[in-house]
Amino acid sequence: MWAGGPVVLGVPWQPTDLLIRAGEDLAAILGVHLICAFVDPASYLTEWEPTTSRVGASLDPAPNRETEFPASEILDRLRNILGPPGQEWTFRVLNGEVSQALTRLAESTDASMLIVGGQRPGNLAGMTRLLEGSVSISLTRSQPRPVMVIPHLGP
User: Fold this and answer.
1) Which H/E stretch holds residue 36?
2) What are the extents of the domains in the chain?
3) Would you place residue 136 in the very low, low, confident or very high pLDDT band (cuts 50, 70, 90)?
4) CB burial class (10 A; 0-12, 13-18, 19+) of residue 30?
């Protein structure tokens, strides 16, 4: 079914070295490509609609200039840890709700597995989970492919 497909690493705004290295190491062990994916938190994605009723909304929305900063900052961090993107790994910026965007990417690339970070500690992170839900819990409940959750050990 999905053995041999790439590993999809969900990269948050401030990824830990542990999370990035886990994705790198697992992809290397499996001998597959690593796709590092950042989901733009300020975007939304219109789900499929019949072409006749579509009114300018798209699954490929116009770029959000305000979110280019976090994406470029994350790409710089990934380059510092993984080296330049290319045959070993690539970077993608996705739009929409995080778990749904990662699911779409995993399906479209026939990914062998997904890797995401675990829940961050603290009151602010807890409030965010209460309002938006937990990406790791959502993925582990809905994915037909393996999901590895790397604990958040950083500050």
Assistant:
1) strand 34-40
2) 10-32+71-86, 96-109+118-145
3) confident
4) middle
